[in-house]
Amino acid sequence: MAPGAYISFPFCAQKCTYCNFASGVFSGSLEHAYIDALVREMEAHVWAKPPDTVYLGGGTPSRMSFTDLQRVLAAILGRPWCEATIEAAPGTITDELAAGWRECGITRVSLGVQSFVAAELARTGRRHTAEVVVRDVEMLRRAGLHNFNIDLIAGLPGQTFDSWSASLDWVERLDPPHVSVYMFEVDEDSHLGHEVLFHGTRYGALDMPDDDAIAGMYETAVERLGACGIARYEISNFARPGFESLHNLKYWRLDPYFGFGADAHSFDGVWRWQNVESAKDYVERQAPAESRVASNPDEERFFVGLRLIEGIQPSPEEWVRHDQPISRFLRDGLLERSGPRLRLTNRGVLLSNEVFEEFVHCP
Q1: CB 43: neighbour CB atoms within 10 A?
Q2: Which of 5, 30, 146, 317 has its CA 20 to 30 A from that of 171?
Q3: Structural fold of domain 4-252
Q4: Hey, which bits of 135-217 come out as E strands?
Q5: Which residues contact 99 (CB under 8 A, 6 or more apart)?
Q6: How wide is the angle at C-alpha 50 spanned by C-alphas 45 and 54, nearest 5°?
Q7: Contacting residues for 187 by C-beta, under 8 A, at least 6 apart
Q8: Mind listing the pLDDT tens digit for each residue in 159-187?
Q9: Residue ranges per structural domain of the chain
Q10: What global pTM score does this model have?
């Protein structure tokens, strides 16, 4: 089975209030040194089999110069890949850049829109408008990049059902083949999450929708996107048939993938490891990877595989080993069985963390 390749570019024009990734605003000199280190790491990697998917995440990889992008992608085997995705911030795309991406082998673009509502965007630190997103989508389509994703976040400060509906209206107009809908989770590693946890007032922390409202927005998105033919195939991901993210499916199906750059994760089917978190440490260290941890297929199969709407097909041994939690969740309506397969119900999706935690701790 061919692996995937993930490439981390943790550089941004500004740090968004909701972001908990190891990304930020750094100096140009560090960015140049980072590209050099990134290319060295990729060129030194020994591939048992070339990757068939590539994913450039961040950060804001769309800020990467065309020359740097050419260098980075040239260091990865397997071109042309089945799928090559680049994450992009709205407003960073030009016709020339979109054409260059396609020339480099990029086949898919993920737009970090988050919201189409000006007041919500202002509080997150994003600088684009709905009209900018429309222009970006037009440029992608002119360049022949018809496979694109739009990211949305349910639960931003000041968000209401009406404003959420307005964002979904824009999605319907743009008619994307893929949409990601993330329910905001409070995390002290983000500026906004830290304010919420410690009762601060910045970034709109006092104006957050409650959990029931966020769940309602998510369910509205499931219904409206489904009516448009954009079906949920993973808890946070929706696609038209044939436009599911091939790279991300590797994570959920426990296929191998190798990460390059700061804070990148890898999984070879047996071991998991992670590169050092900060861009500065990544550049300065000769060996970017930190200690390896043996994977636990029994736990991970349930924890990761149940994120997919298709669910998983437990082995006879797993049905027996996990009989108690499975029986309880079936009884409580959080899981359902369809022949040999086990999957989350609609209610189970909303309470998925509780389900996953039970399997992680199951003996």
Answers
A1: 10
A2: 5
A3: TIM Barrel (3.20.20)
A4: 148-154, 178-183
A5: 143
A6: 85
A7: 20, 193
A8: 999 999 999 999 999 999 999 999 987 56
A9: 4-252, 296-363
A10: 0.92
